[in-house]
Structures are given as structure tokens and as C-alpha cells.
Amino acid sequence: KLNPSFVGIALSSLLAIALWASKRLGVCAAEGSAWGSARPLMKVIEVSGHGIPWLLGTCYGLCQSDSSAAREVLLNLLFALLLDLVMVAVVKGLVKRPRPTHNKMDMFVTISVDKYSFPSGHATRAALVCRFVLRHLVLAVPLRVLVVLWALIVSISRVMLGRHNMTDVLFGLLLGYALYSVVEHCWLSPATAPALFALW
């Protein structure tokens, strides 16, 4: 059996390495950083993974859709996005890990729990939306590849902008992947939630 103190030291060492690597990879954390000129592009990518555009777009699609199949998919996407927001907020509130010291607090539309770092909500959302889109939309192979690349780029941008440590992003990706399974298990349909569908 491993000595508990040895395990603790090993975990602390791995965490220290992750923090060091995260700071080294924060190449767009400020205008004067190594890749500071790419910061505006990284911030556009940041907005593409933010919850508000996804929520507004999904609600707009629900209001405009005249297909019952499309409404079912969009309603479940809305459920997935709301579940994601709640779970990330709960975990951030429990863990209360501060943002990296090199992060500039100039993020697009933040709320109180956004001062915390663990997990990355953008990474969680990217993994969740990626799985959802690949499962429920019929896309050509190049578009499927683009969806996966988008999820990866959004996640990597969190470290490059200095918003998160690598462990925040990795856990976020795992959480988003798992949350999609919850959405599939609790899939809303006219049979399981007739009152909800009657609203639309």
C-alpha cells in the first residue's frame, strides 16, 4: 500500500506542475504577453462558447421552429444548457478556486460565481454541445470535424487567455461529457413531458 503522505506529495507535485504549465501557456493573458496580438481573436472564441449566445439562439430557434422534431431537439438543448449553468455554478460555489493570478477580469458578461475558476464553464459547455450536436444533427463529415475542433479550441483558449488552469478545463470537459449522458437519460419528449410541449 502507498503511504498516504507519499500520495499527498505526489498529488501536490502534479498540481504544482499543472499550475506552472497553465501559467506558461497563458500566452494571450494580456496585450503584452507572448501572443498578445491574438488576444482579440481568443476573446471572440470565448464569446462563441459563452452561455448567453447559446441560450438566446436556442430560445430564438424554439420560437421560430414549425417542426415538432426540431422543437423537441431544441427544447432538450435548452434543458442541457440550463443544466450546465446550474451544475457549473454549484461546483464553482463549492470549490471556490480563485482564477489564475495572471487573468484579466475582462470577461464577457460574468456573474458572482464567475470569480471562481473550477471548473471551466466554457469547456463544460463545449463538450456538452459538441456531443449533443454530433448526436442529434445530421452533418457532413467536414462539419462534424469542425464541431469537434470548435470544442477543443474553446477549451484551449481558456488556458491561453489565462482564465483557467489546465485542471479546470480538463474537469470541465469531463463534466460536460457526463452531463450529456444525463440529458439523454432524461430526454424530454411529448410522451414524457406533454405539458411542456403544449407551451410550444
UniProtKB/TrEMBL annotation:
Keywords from the named record: Endoplasmic reticulum, Hydrolase, Lipid metabolism, Membrane, Nucleus, Signal, Transmembrane, Transmembrane helix
Transmembrane stretches, start-end: 74-95, 137-157, 177-199
Alphabetized SMART domains for the sequence: acidPPc
Catalytic activity: presqualene phosphate + H2O = presqualene alcohol + phosphate; (2E,6E,10E)-geranylgeranyl phosphate + H2O = (2E,6E,10E)-geranylgeraniol + phosphate; (2E,6E)-farnesyl phosphate + H2O = (2E,6E)-farnesol + phosphate; 1,2-dihexadecanoyl-sn-glycero-3-phosphate + H2O = 1,2-dihexadecanoyl-sn-glycerol + phosphate
The Phosphatidic acid phosphatase type 2/haloperoxidase domain, residue ranges: 73-184
Signal sequence region: 1-29
CDD domains, sorted: PAP2_containing_2_like
UniProt record, GO biological process: lipid metabolic process
EC numbers for this chain: 3.6.1.68
Main localization (coarse): endoplasmic reticulum
Pfam families: PAP2
GO molecular function, one term: sphingosine-1-phosphate phosphatase activity
PANTHER family: POLYISOPRENOID DIPHOSPHATE_PHOSPHATE PHOSPHOHYDROLASE PLPP6, SPHINGOSINE-1-PHOSPHATE PHOSPHOHYDROLASE
Protein family membership: Belongs to the PA-phosphatase related phosphoesterase family.
Record-given protein name: Polyisoprenoid diphosphate/phosphate phosphohydrolase PLPP6
